[in-house]
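User: Please fill in residues for this 90-position structure.
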């Protein structure tokens, strides 16, 4: 059950990255998803690739508050985290 919740957070974060564009959402939403993804990456202690995807995507959310992130980077990280979320449902 917990894996499905964490997987759904991944899918929602990926959808935000791909379709929404980071400038469309408020700062609060970006900070919440960034903090959640950074907390999820600490569960794996950055020992596996999935934890690194969470860590880098969380940083991307937090950096996008300050800087303008190119769309291709958002799309790549969005696809990676959606793929990770889908595999957690299997």
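Assistant: Residues filled in for all 90 positions:
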């Amino acid at each position: 059950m917990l894996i499905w919740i964490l997987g759904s957070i991944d899918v929602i974060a990926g959808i935000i990255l791909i379709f929404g564009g980071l400038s469309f959402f408020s700062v609060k939403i970006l900070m919440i998803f960034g903090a959640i993804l950074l907390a999820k990456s600490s569960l794996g202690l950055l020992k596996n690739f999935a934890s690194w995807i969470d860590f880098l995507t969380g940083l991307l959310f937090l950096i996008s508050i300050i800087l303008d992130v190119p769309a291709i980077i958002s799309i790549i990280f969005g696809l990676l985290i959606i793929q990770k979320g889908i595999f957690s449902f299997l």
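For context: The mean pLDDT is 87.
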